[in-house]
Amino acid sequence: MRVPRSRAELHRALAFARAEAGGAQACIPLRDVTPLLEEVHAEYFQRRFGDVTWQFSVQRSLANINRDARHIRLHFTLNSHDVPDDVFRMTFIHELLHLEIPPGLDDRGFPEQHTPAFRTAEKARNPHRTEGWGWLNDNLPLKHQKFFDCTEVVPRKIRLTPAQRDWVAEATGIHLSRSVRCDDPLLRTQHAALWLIVLLARHHKE
């Protein structure tokens, strides 16, 4: 977390904070990642944090953890069977490290979640980083949120006209709704290049 350097940056940070504060709505899980969490907790942390829970949530950040409740929230775009197990292992290691390594202060005296000690520990103990981030960067619309030092899933939305939706249906056999979100996991699993097709459809004219 750092001090905003401009009014625009402050407004973006406030918008992000409001989205996070109001984004605790849980989603019905389409897959159970409890075994992966238990595996990571046992292998890398010897189960010393007791009961750690999780949920898929409507939120802006990719993942976060409530230290007091030992509760992990995962962005709903991960609520899909196409997400590799290593993505969850990497994410759970990262979030559980927050329970082990407390936040500190940066050189200017401001709160810092990912201290140098945290970064060092994560690199040393997270063998799934390369595969996990590779898949995330290839499949999700991600952006680094500088103010809160976290990864944000950009909730981009595109509205399609009837003609544009007909064009997609003819090209792919998939019938889209009038409004399409790039972070919707169903969009990702229906067709490998469907978001690109949506972008092309956005510019399609009869």
What does this structure look like?
- This protein has 206 residues and is of the alpha+beta class.
- The protein has two domains: 147 residues, Zincin-like; 46 residues, no CATH class.
- Helices cover 44% and strands 17% of the residues.
- It is built from eight helices and ten strands.
- The strands form four sheets. It has a four-stranded mixed β-sheet with strand order 1-2-4-3, covered by helices on one side. The protein has a two-stranded antiparallel ribbon with strand order 5-6.
- Strand 7 and strand 8 form a beta hairpin.
- It is elongated and about 55 Å long.
- The N and C termini lie far apart (48 Å).
- About 4% of the residues have low confidence.
Tell me briefly what this model is.
The protein is α+β, with helices and mostly antiparallel strands and 206 residues long. It folds into two domains: 7-153, Metalloproteases ("zincins"), catalytic domain (Zincin-like), CATH 3.30.2010.10; 157-202, no CATH class.
List the helices and strands and how they pair.
Elements: H1 7-21, E1 26-27, H2 34-45, E2 53-57, E3 63-66, E4 71-75, H3 85-100, E5 104-105, E6 111-112, H4 116-125, H5 129-139, E7 142-145, E8 150-153, E9 157-159, H6 162-172, E10 179-181, H7 185-190, H8 194-202
Parallel strand pairs: 2-4
Antiparallel strand pairs: 1-2, 3-4, 5-6, 7-8, 9-10
Mean pLDDT: 82
Structural class: alpha+beta
Label the overall shape: elongated
Number of strands: 10
N-C termini distance:
48 Å
> How many independent structural domains?
2
Into which percent range does the helicity of residues fall? Answer: 40-55%
Which residues form runs of ≥5 with pLDDT under 50? 16-23
The CATH architecture designation of the largest domain is 2-Layer Sandwich
Order of helices and strands: HEHEEEHEEHHEEEHEHH
Strand content bin: 15-25%
CATH class membership of the largest domain: Alpha Beta
Biggest sheet, strands in spatial order? 1-2-4-3
The CATH superfamily label of the largest domain reads Metalloproteases ("zincins"), catalytic domain
Largest sheet: 4 strands, mixed
At CATH level 3, the topology of the largest domain is: Zincin-like
Q: Number of helix segments?
A: 8
